[in-house]
Amino acid sequence: MDFALKTRQRKLVEMVRELVNSEIKPHLLSSPAGSGFNRELVRQLAIHNLVCPTVPEEYGGRGLDRLTTALLMEEIAAGHPGVAAVIAATLHAVEPILLAGSDAQKEKYLPGLTGKDAGLAAFALTEASGGSDLSMMRTCAVRKGAGFYLNGSKDYVINAPVASWISVIAATSREQRKASMRVFLLEQNSSGLSMVRQRETSGLNYAPIGEIKFENIFIEEENVIKGQEAGSGYLLLTQTFDRGRAMVGAISVGIARAALEAALEFAENRVQFGTSIKNHQAVAFSLADMATRVEMARLMTYKACWLIDKGGDYTAASAMAKVVGSETAQQVTCAAADILGARGYEKGSLIEQLVRDARVLSTIEGTNNMQRAVIASQL
Ligand SMILES: Cc1cc2nc3c(=O)[nH]c(=O)nc-3n(C[C@H](O)[C@H](O)[C@H](O)COP(=O)(O)OP(=O)(O)OC[C@H]3O[C@@H](n4cnc5c(N)ncnc54)[C@H](O)[C@@H]3O)c2cc1C
User: Fold this and answer.
1) What is the CATH code of the structural domain delimited by 7-119?
2) Which helix (H) or strand (E) holds 210?
């Protein structure tokens, strides 16, 4: 077992850390909720071909493996969790194409997410009728002629207002919703696609999140990711989630690390009872617990990514990384707020922002209850 990162990975991490600290992190506290998106921060990543680094080199991407991608996601999230969410949503939208897309779909959809003018993508599954329970999904695509007519709506979709295209999950049979699911690749300018509203969330400022509606949108067969067998659309969906969860682990580690660093710096400089508060054992032990938890979440994320990269069975590992990561981010950001005392409760402060950003990690990409159901099913 080798815990050392390769030189290439360390150099990339150093480059991205520098880029995030100089060009992206300074905008964290000035991004207003809901309407904070601007292309400039994404462009900073695009200049280095980092908007969707898993896109294979033959389609213009960096072709990074999951472990290296997770290293970069930790860096981006440590500087600006909202930007990390925008990138993670794009990675997630691309996953079904990487897993099961045709060569023509790869050629059509992947190059646009690469290079300095890279666009973004979105992944649309959740509906008003249900997020966890996929049998409640109402969006339907009915076959007619050389394609499908898509009707329905999706909610809480990151990047929905700004994505060049959207991976939409819809059933093709009203009777067998789960078994008949397919991934439909929908371009933003499709006639019949409309934005119902933009959601304002309490965290992940910068990430544009919206409810979208589909009215009789014709989608040609060539823009449907087809599985070979009945039920394979659902399998594709579960594989997509199994991979995406490891990225939530990486974002969680980044947020927790940022909170730990802020708490440590504060504890070293804040003097109470004649000494820096870090010298009070209760504060030091709290910092020790935070550092231990961050390391645990990081190692579990690395292991899930390693399994994905080597083609192992990553379902449980990825769900575990997501549960531990998200709970770590929530615990560590709250513990950091305690160490900062009154300053940890100040509106507009870094810690306040990180607490809010961490809060949603146990909900997105399948709630932690659903992760536990996945893990239990694997025992
Ligand atoms: C900031 C943000 C970004 C998001 N981005 C996207 C996106 O890009 N694309 C997308 O498609 N969706 C997105 N979502 C939606 C997210 O995936 C869903 O919110 C999530 O899947 C939960 O669905 P729900 O909100 O309908 O909750 P529900 O499914 O209604 O669950 C409510 C509660 O009940 C619990 N629960 C439900 N069923 C069970 C069960 N069987 N056992 C135990 N507990 C259960 C859940 O754990 C949860 O605590 C986003 C949400 C947020 C807040």
Assistant:
1) 1.10.540.10
2) strand 209-220
